Amino acid sequence: MRLSLNILLPVRRLLLGLAALPLAVACSSNEGGSSDAVKDATALNEHKIADADITKKQEADAEFLVRATSNALLEVELGKLAQTRATAPAVRAFGAAAVQSRLELLTSLRSLAAAKQLAVPSALGDDEQSAYHEASTQTGSQLDKRVMALLVKIQKQDEDAFDDMKDDAYDGDIRALAAKYYTPIDEQLDAAKEAADAADKLP
After folding, report:
1. Mean pLDDT (whole number) for 68-76
2. How far apart are CA 93 and CA 203, in angstroms?
3. Can you tell me the distance from the alpha carbon of 58 to that of 55, in angstroms, rounded to the nearest whole number?
4. Contact call for residues 62 and 165 (beta carbons, < 8 A)
5. What's the whole-model pTM score?
6. CA 61/CA 168 separation, integer angstroms
């Protein structure tokens, strides 16, 4: 089952109002101009940063918020899939934990993005939808294995990004958010690897 995307406004209409970049736009990528929520959020931020002639470090800050939000959205959906359809108890339990932790993270990411007037995706992008669809079409133990392989891969990306940004983010509030969530993310990556090992042992 794919996560549906909202209908998007035309690019022309969005760009006419971009100078003000209201918070409502900053919080939602679905007011971009394409069908890919992640690309829309990135484009909004690139336009804002280019207009303000801001540094490359601030571009990295914006990209971090977009990617962290995109990953968290996919992790929530994969966690729900594991909860409802995985065969191994360890995978189902990890799915529940992933949903809870990433929903909390999403709340923090969205609040911070709104405060900084930066856009983050409100739905899965094309690549993330494809990854979810590919996992959701599996059955039995193959679903367990595919879901956990994806979750380990994504959570490793999270761990690397939050580790970097807790020291290197230009914005102090983004550094603080990365520092706050780095240890829980690192610990959950270890738990993901354990659940993936359990899945790999299935026939």
Report:
1. 98
2. 19
3. 5
4. no
5. 0.76
6. 9
